[in-house]
Amino acid sequence: MTATQTDIQTQPELQTNPAIPPTIRRIVLTGFMGSGKSTVGALLAERLGWEFLDLDAHIEARSGSSVRDLFANHGEPHFRLLESSALANALGRRNVVLSLGGGAPEQLTNRLLIEQTPGTHTIFLDAPFPVLFDRCVLQAIARPVLADPAIAEARFHQRQPHYRRLARLIVDTAALSPRETVDLLVHSLQTRK
Fold first, then answer.
1. Total domain count for the chain?
2. Does the keyword Hydrolase apply (predicted)?
3. Buried-most residue among 76, 132, 146, 177 (CB within 10 A)?
């Protein structure tokens, strides 16, 4: 963990004012599927009075196709180009909580976009693989990678270093509900300088 990262695993005394430093203009949530990026992101945005943007949904809206269809009909390289374009567009917004797809941080272009956009605060929602897998097991049809747990776990381990590298804050969500995670995030953001 770098000096700019914080690893949160316990819940501190929480403040009720959701004000965060003005230097934080956008929040990017990363993590593997099942980590809570979309659920926590929507709740966090609501709490802050900000916009919430799920990058995969943004790609679907811009392309007119589902992520699944984009992969099936055009392949992963085409999808990753659309993803980078959508990410650049999303990072141009202020007062937005952005939930990335699990594979977005694997792409160097995406990491550079995030790292080089001033005012971007990246949070890694982490949990052990078995916890994440259990959260997603009912979504196996929507998430084909889950059909083979060994492949899913290999992907999980492959992506971990990218999530950690981007993160200014790491939150272990294994024992937290989405609302508890948001409380923890708001507290952490309030205490940032």
1. 1
2. no
3. 132
